Amino acid sequence: MSGNERMRAIIGAAVTLIFFVGAPYMLPKYLPPNIAQLLAESGFDLQGFINEVMILGAVTAALTLAKGFAGKASPVSLLINVAQNVATLVFMVVLLGAGDVSSLGVTSFTFSSENTTNYMVMDFRVFIYFTVLTVALRVVEVYLDWDEARVEAMPPGRIPP
């Protein structure tokens, strides 16, 4: 690995930490009180959602950093790339499930006012299915890229398996 690729990995990990850990950590301080009250009344666990995004951000930043220091032909690189794609899938499930991973994209909110109660259900499962398909195709692509890099890294004259 060249120094340029390592520096790019360090910068990428820092940017990921800023956007997916630092920004969500600061979000509740800048959220207007009426929005926070509306979210609390609807049953949305904002702090739990923020914690899940921050954990996924930290994991993604660590994977980005490790990817920069692993050789393209190493099995570790393959595992890191697959893990990044799985983290993307988990992030989409958390995002579309409004923080509830077990809902798999079906989100429900309850809004109550003086005499009425509104119950809203949003079904985003089709987006989850598309994300699963996309991640599966990306894993295949990552494997093919890794296999190509592994063959190119072989010594001259060696017959690839």
What's a quick, concise take on this entry?
With 161 residues, this protein is mainly α. The protein has five helices and two strands.
Write the layout of secondary structure elements.
Elements: H1 3-30, H2 33-41, H3 46-69, H4 75-96, E1 106-112, E2 117-123, H5 125-152
Antiparallel strand pairs: 1-2
Helix pairs in contact: 1-3, 3-4, 4-5
Which tags fit this structure?
mainly alpha, about 70% helix, about 160 residues, 5 helices, two-stranded antiparallel sheet
Low-pLDDT regions: none
Largest sheet: 2 strands, antiparallel
Number of strands: 2
Distance between the termini: 24 Å
Which structural class fits the helix and strand makeup?
mainly alpha
**Could you estimate the helical fraction of the residues in percent?**
55-70%
Overall, the morphology is elongated
Any idea how many domains? 1
From the alpha carbons, calculate the radius of gyration and give it in angstroms. Answer: 21 Å
Report on this structure:
By secondary structure, the chain is mainly alpha-helical. It has one domain. The protein contains 5 helices and 2 strands. A hairpin with a 4-residue loop joins strand 1 and strand 2.
